[in-house]
Amino acid sequence: MTTSSGPAATGDAAEKLERLVGPILSEAGYDLEELTAGPTGEVRAVRVIVDRDGGIGLDELAQVSRQLSEALDETDLFGEQAYDLEVSTPGIGRPLSLPRHWRRARGRKVAVRLLVDGAKSTVQGRVAEIDDDTVALLHNDKGRMRTQSIPFADIESAKIEVDFTRPGEAELRRCGLDDDEIARRRTPAS
Prior knowledge:
Ribosome_maturation_RimP; ribosome biogenesis; 5 helices; SH3 type barrels; alpha+beta; 4-stranded mixed β-sheet; GMP Synthetase, Chain A, domain 3; cytoplasm
């Protein structure tokens, strides 16, 4: 989790903000992925990035946003200064740096930058199996599927990629997704 504050907010204010929002998010079953607060002219911008296994819907984001707004209104954390609260989930391009990020990216297309013996390379694939030491990426070349096991120690950076394809059921099943998740991923957005 990243916590930061702008020039007008002290480290103490950032810690107070985290102590305020942390329990609310935890009680709702969310992980706090990032928290930033900084001035943007007359209004302080407060950005809260949350996630959880199974994802978060828009109605759930609205509900937790209301809870956080009420909690902020009840404090004098920002004094009389107005604030603009943004609550969202991590988007495409977010870095995969913790085990829970990899677990939640299962079946998603990712780009992984490797650093092995001083040599850099990049591979893409769908996140399949994950254990304490490695991630397996699934590669689908015109229906011929293979997995590539990559030690976490060899990963310099990784992020979720924009995926314009609709992966097949067999591909998602090979990534370890259950029937409900496969149906959700294969249903076009309305």
